[in-house]
Amino acid sequence: MKREISHRMLKIYTCLAVDHDLRLLVVASAICLFVSTVGVALFNRARAASGRMQLVWLTFVAMSAGFGVWSTHFIAMLAYIPAAQASYDPGLTLVSLALAILVIGAGAAIALVGPSIWYVATGGAVVGLGFAAMHFCGVTAVQRPALMIASPEYASLAATLGVSLSIPAAVIAVRRDDIIHTVIAALLFSLAILSLHFTAMASLAAVPDPDQLTIDSSMSAATLALVIAGAAAAILGGCLIAALIDRRSSSVIQRQKMLLDIATENIPQALCMFDAEGRAKLFNTRYAALIDIDPEQLKGMKLTDQFQLRKTRGQFAGDPEATFNAILTDINSGEMVSRTDQSVLPGHVLRIIEQPLPDGGWVATIEDITEWRKTQERMVHLARHDSLTDLPNRFTLREELDRALRYSRRETGVAILYIDLDHFKEINDTLGHPIGDALLIEVGRRLVGCVRGEDTVARLGGDEFAIIQMSHHDPESDAAALAMRIVSVISMPYEIQGHHISIGTSIGIALAPADGSEPDQLIKNADLALYRAKSEGRGGYRFFELDMDAHAQTRRLLTTELRLALARGEFTLRYQPIRDTESNRILCFEALLRWEHPTRGTLLPDQFLDLAEDTGLIIPIGDWVLQTACTDAMQWHSDVGVAVNLSASQFRHPHLVPSVAAALSSSGLEPRRLELEIRESVLLREATTAPATLKALRALGVQLSMDNFGAGYSLLNSLNTFVFDRVKIDRSFIPEIDRSSDALSTLSAVTGLGKRLGRVTAATGVENAEQLRLLRLAGCSEIQGLVVSPPCTAAEMKRLAKHDDRFVA
Fold it and tell me: Would you give the DSSP letter of residue 273?
């Protein structure tokens, strides 16, 4: 066996080294390598193309490879010395060329037709068989002057070598389209061709045959060489140039495709390009994910089929055909279409933009705007609703009232109720804003529970609410019934975060059309009715009356005049003395504010101070009173002090202490001579901050007095909580002491408690000698009232405050 193999190898070597012209063999080998390289390059171009272009490149592969291998064969035949003088049959020569082209082309087509590597291997095997078929057909074309005798064993071995080497060459060629794999595949194909040729040629024996006749149609070896060289150079050169140009173009296209892929994959919208029949040509992963279809399945899939597939899954709510036809109608108009859709993806809102293309197709971009739409709706809701209670706000109330008024003119009456919570500020200041906010939320819930579905409950801001009530019967009776129900429900106790809270409410009501037919007029009148309800004691409701408008106009005019009064110097001070009941000595004068109105005459504090509190003018007026009283007191005896009342707004104002210090500093008055009077009700409302404010005032050295002590509040709690130099008993006690022993006993208990706590007790509003006598018996230390002196001007006070006149009989 070994001897037989050695014999065969020796015979192949002899054929190669002795029977061939080595110079021509080098040429044939070079052409073979060149042919193989061109063929692999063209085959890769065919793999990269599709459709008709793939067929074109496949034709190039068959032509170039077939002609190249054929050229290699006949050049090698020219190098075969025993057949050097032979001629060739033109017909068989052309048949061998056709076999090379057809069989190699078939092998390349098989390698391209399927994705499996087995298709590639099979295609490589067919290419190897094409090499063999071309070779043996070409050998039979030899005509003279020798007779070619072949050995079957060597012929089979040659074919086997061609096929065996062509299979791995084809596999390597498709593995990667780069220079290294191209060269390796080309070398293997070259080796397959050359090994097949030399092994097959080793099986031949050229025997001279002088009896063969000369055939006129035969081609001489020289002629065949020229034809081969020229044709091979032209065809292979052209194919190589085409391959290089295509490779460069493909590289550019590949880069452009890569940039396109990057762009489509990084846009925030889903994108799909459709052809004129609605097939998906190009799409990004965001589109495939949006419609939940596998990208491989989606390639070339018609839009109607996409709709139908998603409809079977329950992912599409519309009619596939109708939706597709509507899209085509829009595309055929030639204009860009932008629309929102909720059927393509149920539960989601999509913004779809469709841009027509010149070829009848279109590009669709789809953006899921569900969250954006929810955000927009939330923003619209917030713009129209109160952020704390989620009730309609003032703007929405105005719109709803306008709508209700238009509707009421036909068949329904309308009432608007303005609601204000009583004493809410005290709750907010005492327990804190979180508790206050929770209380407002609960009030809103209760109000909603008081009305019907067609009514509107709104929060206007702060502790103010409003209700639009629709009435189909008697608007006035319905509004009154609702107001009473609200007063009852709102006054029920609340338990919020462990706190038991009780509040009340005041309500103003305006009816349409009796009190107005326009929203703004009704709102204004309801607000006027609310103001009247609050001024009459709170905890109730009032309907609008015409005189309320006149009263409001008067109030507005008075507000304007009040703003000018301070600048015009229309305020003055009166002083009323406070006398010691034991020594009859005048201890100090209380400063009492008056407004010398140019047309209304002298106005007392109760005629304008509430207005000053509401408008905030009480702060600059209070500062003027402090400054003026301290300045006037400097004209009196050094032992006589001056008492100034502080309003609720002044007491809680952050600049109170600096204002008092400034008045003392600018006037030069000793702090001990200034006494600040604070009402007990103010202290109780400001219970949280009052101790710190009183401590800061006392640090200035001034005297502190609790005014209106006992006016409806807990006496013991106030005396124990707040430390004062003087306690002024409310004037409501005094008229009763000479008519009721119980009143006198109560007064005696208060004065006794004050003495035990180290407080001086003073009675205000003392008008006659009998009251003075009883107060002395009850142990009251100081008195103030008409029995001592009516309020006097500063000039009159100079006489009373003289050292010689400080004792009053």
Answer: E
